[in-house]
Design goal:
single chain; alpha/beta; eight-stranded mixed β-sheet; five-stranded mixed β-sheet; 19 strands
């Protein structure tokens, strides 16, 4: 089986996509960094064995966050031009000598698994292949004064995208030769391949595989992301635990000193239990008891962050995102207010959200009922989840 690698070019500054001090490849679209979307797409392709990212010196903290948890090679530093950055990525792979390499711009975060597969298939057959879209507008060439020179035959034109894919040794040699001869004017890797004498095939690209270049492209990208997650669901969760002997309670993943503890098979964290059930409810995927039955001894004394993380992973496995979590704690004591932000921060960390997507409120029951008699604590939660729309029989 052929060894296939990918070079992700993320060393640019993105000056045309102004509006943030953060380079465009590290800005977020739909709550996720543009670069992370690229890395996730390639990491999800079982045919690719190495992913080599090229970044600018100083961008290491941004990169570490974007690549967290993904099976990718350590990044290398790029050059002053895209061409120099691609060569740096190819040189980093020279020791592994893959058979095929895909070169992709980090500014294209919506490359689909199907597009990546087509690039590999086409290159296996021809040795060099690039995705392209048929041109639908009439195209005219103009002279230096803005006058039309000629109308071009658009049936023979293609708007070219990435990933561009090549057999590894020839494209590395082409880049080395271009650098040796001082050629720095190539606008894409296919142009270098053509200059070096390689025959490049064009296969079908994707209209959704947009390149983020200008500020309005971020607006378009956000709209595309939301259109893909059109199934908006709301789930609710309720949990109750009684007091027993102890010196603290766990609420929302935060240890709070108290004259009693909450009793339960796990750590009895009413907040995380209610949130877990709310998320599972939005997914129509059972409840916390069906996934973590109290009859199973492995969950005795377990930290409840495992339950919430599990529910969040169920959302991710279906291609969805959590939009908002809302938690209300009902008790006479302990006081929740001083710990509110710590709970929000902990829940946000477990769920992979920003704090502004986590609400925590507290109230008493005016000394009514079991909470009013200080016999236990109740929690109510709501989760808003966005999923790709699907129709099932």
């Amino acid at each position: 089986m052929a060894k296939i690698a990918a070079v992700i070019v993320a060393a640019g500054r993105g000056t045309r996509a102004a509006g943030s001090d953060v380079p465009k490849q590290f800005r977020q679209v739909g709550g996720e960094a543009v670069l992370r979307r690229c890395l996730t797409a390639f990491a999800g392709c079982e045919l690719i064995h190495t992913i080599q990212t090229v970044i600018r010196p100083g961008d290491e903290p941004h990169y570490a966050e974007a690549a967290s948890g993904l099976a990718v090679a350590p990044p290398v530093h790029g050059g002053d031009t895209r061409q120099a950055s691609v060569r740096a990525g190819l040189e980093a792979l020279a020791g592994e000598a893959p058979d095929i390499v895909l070169i992709h711009d980090a500014a294209r975060p919506f490359a689909s698994p199907a597009l990546i597969a087509r690039a590999i298939e086409a290159t296996t057959e021809t040795g060099a292949a690039i995705p392209g879209l048929a041109v639908t507008d009439t195209i005219k060439s103009i002279d230096g004064h803005g006058y039309v020179g000629e109308t071009l035959d658009r049936t023979r034109l293609r708007a070219v995208q990435t990933p561009q894919a090549f057999t590894f040794a020839p494209i590395l040699e082409a880049h080395r030769r271009a650098a040796h001869e001082g050629r720095t004017d190539f606008t894409d890797d296919a142009a270098i391949a053509e200059w070096a004498g390689m025959q490049v095939r064009v296969f079908d690209g994707e209209s959704a595989n947009i390149k983020i270049t200008h500020p309005e492209d971020f607006v378009r990208a956000e709209a595309m992301q939301l259109s893909q997650l059109s199934d908006v669901r709301t789930g609710t969760g309720i949990d109750v635990h009684a007091f027993g002997p102890g010196d603290h309670v766990m609420i929302g993943g935060v240890r709070i000193a108290h004259g009693q503890a909450l009793t339960g098979h796990s750590d009895a964290d009413v907040g995380l239990h209610a949130l877990t059930d709310a998320i599972l409810g939005a997914l129509a995927d059972g409840d916390i008891g069906s996934h973590f039955p109290p009859s199973d001894p492995q969950w005795k004394g377990a930290a409840s962050d495992r339950f919430l993380k599990f529910a969040c992973e169920r959302v991710a496995s279906r291609g969805g995102r959590i939009a908002h979590l809302d938690l209300t704690i009902v008790c006479e004591a302990p006081k929740i207010g001083p710990h509110r932000d710590a709970i929000r921060e902990t829940v946000a960390r477990i769920a992979g959200l920003s704090m502004d997507r986590v609400a925590v409120k507290a109230t008493t029951s005016e000394q009514l009922g079991f909470t009013g008699r200080r016999e236990g604590i109740a929690a109510y939660a709501t989760a808003t989840v966005r999923l790709p729309w699907s129709e099932k029989a």
